[in-house]
Amino acid sequence: MKSEKNHTIIYCAGGLVWRETGDGREILLILSREDQAWKFPKGHIDDTDPGWDAAAQREVREETGYDTVITDFAGFTSYPVKGVPKVVLYWHMEPTGEHAFEESDEIEQFEWLPIRDAVDRLTFMNDKQFLLRFSNDDGSRNE
Questions:
Q1: d(CA 133, CA 102)
Q2: Which residues of the chain have pLDDT under 70?
Q3: How far is the C-alpha of 115 from the C-alpha of 24, rounded, in Å?
Q4: pLDDT value of residue 19
Q5: CA–CA separation, 17 vs 24, rounded Å?
Q6: Would you state the torsion angle of the CA atoms of residues 142, 36, 107, 72, taken in this order, to the nearest 10 degrees?
Q7: What angle do CA 73, 48, 67 make, to 5 degrees?
Q8: Measured between alpha carbons, how far is 21 from 43 in angstroms, rounded to an integer?
Q9: Could you list the residue range(s) of the whole structural domain that residue 95 is in?
Q10: Contact indicator for 103, 87 with CB cutoff of 8 Å
Q11: Burial code of 38-55, b = ≥16 C-beta within 10 A, e = fewer?
């Protein structure tokens, strides 16, 4: 007998936010207040979002205070959360304009880090592996 059970899927979108500095490229990470985990800014897709890319930019703005421009699609990650599949689509982004970060119930702080330091700082292995896809052997971002 075939099972008729469908699983709920959690859909999220986020950004790999990059900036150029005198010492090279850096990526933006956030510290989640709830689980004290370092991760990429991301969040759930809202019914009012016109698309996944817009949801990603909204979430980055809400969590970091940065407006962004999308430069490319980065890819996706998927993993179970309490037995429920979670899919996150990510875009490469660059910050634009002024920054207006404020701590929130969700986000305690953020930090710009060189890619190798970011890999070390990220809490979850799937995030580390995802970021390493964009790293050269010297730790800089692939172009």
A1: 30
A2: 1-7, 136-143
A3: 9
A4: 94
A5: 14
A6: 20
A7: 50
A8: 27
A9: 11-132
A10: no
A11: bbbbbbebeeebeebbeb
Q: Which two tokens stand for residue 23?
A: 């010492």
Whether the CA torsion 101, 34, 76, 4 is positive or negative: it is negative
Q: How many domains does the structure of the chain reveal? A: 1
Task: Evaluate whether residue 119 is within a structural domain.
Answer: yes
User: Residue 79 is which amino acid?
Assistant: Y
Q: 52 in a domain, yes or no?
A: yes
111 found inside a domain: yes
What is the residue type of 65?
A: G
pLDDT for the residue numbered 3: 45
Cβ–Cβ contacts within 10 Å for residue 63, how many? 23
The CATH number assigned to the domain holding 116 equals 3.90.79.10
Strand partners, 31: 38, 109
Domain contains 3: no
Neighbours of 37 (CB within 10 A): 14
Residue 7, pLDDT score:
65
**CB contact set of 121 (below 8 Å; sequence gap of 6+):** 29, 38, 111, 113
